[in-house]
Amino acid sequence: MSLRYALLGLLSEGPASGYDLLRTFKHSLANIWPATQSQIYTELTKLAEARLIEVSDEGPRGRKEYTLTAAGLDDLRTWLTTTRPKRAVRNETLLRVFFLGVTPPAHARAYLTEIAEDADQAHADLIELERSIDWDDSDLSRNGHIALEYGKRATAMNRDWARWALEQLPPEPS
């Protein structure tokens, strides 16, 4: 359901083609709400059928540019102001950590090391992404930067937690 609102939100900034929206997903939203090309185009079709967006221009090779309708903007605003986000309750990574005692100690260390390394790489990727974007004063840019900062802080926390967790394990046998 949130893919719907991600697309409506992006189109609130102005008209865009499916390709433009896919590129924006890859460069800004993929870290918080990934979507594939087929998911995006399927959702665009549904949004057009629901008259929340409309095709405002057509180009070569079937390229369509979509524009948010008044009904689409109203739907986006309603979602933003009257619904609460669902908080993720399940975390498979932590469920596995909870039961690491049933694995050999070397596996537990390797698992936590992998979490730390993955978080460190994700953190570095977000820093590089932040540097690569020409931030401006638009709502999408400002709020995208705020969301990216959340990702940087979350990946740093995950990395630091995994390193701490490694120190909590019993020492390796000599």
Helical fraction: 55-70%
Highest-level CATH class of the largest domain: Mainly Alpha
SS field, number of helical segments: 7
- Quaternary structure of the protein: single chain
Quick one: biggest sheet? 3 strands, antiparallel
Terminal Cα span: 53 Å
Low-confidence stretches: none
Rg (CA only): 21 Å
- Give the second-level CATH assignment, the architecture of the largest domain: Orthogonal Bundle
Helix-strand sequence: HEHHEEHHHH
Q: Enter the CATH topology name of the largest domain.
A: Arc Repressor Mutant, subunit A
Query: What is the residue-mean pLDDT, rounded to a whole number?
Result: 91
**Total beta strand runs:** 3
From the spread of the alpha carbons, the general shape counts as elongated
Strand order of the largest sheet: 1-3-2
Backbone structural class? mainly alpha
Total domain units = 2
How big a fraction of the residues is strand? Answer: 5-15%
Q: Please name the fourth-level CATH homologous superfamily of the largest domain.
A: Winged helix-like DNA-binding domain superfamily/Winged helix DNA-binding domain
Q: What's the arrangement of secondary structure elements?
A:
Blueprint: H1 2-11, E1 16-17, H2 18-29, H3 37-49, E2 53-58, E3 64-68, H4 70-82, H5 92-98, H6 105-132, H7 139-168
Antiparallel strand pairs: 1-3, 2-3
Helix pairs in contact: 2-3, 6-7
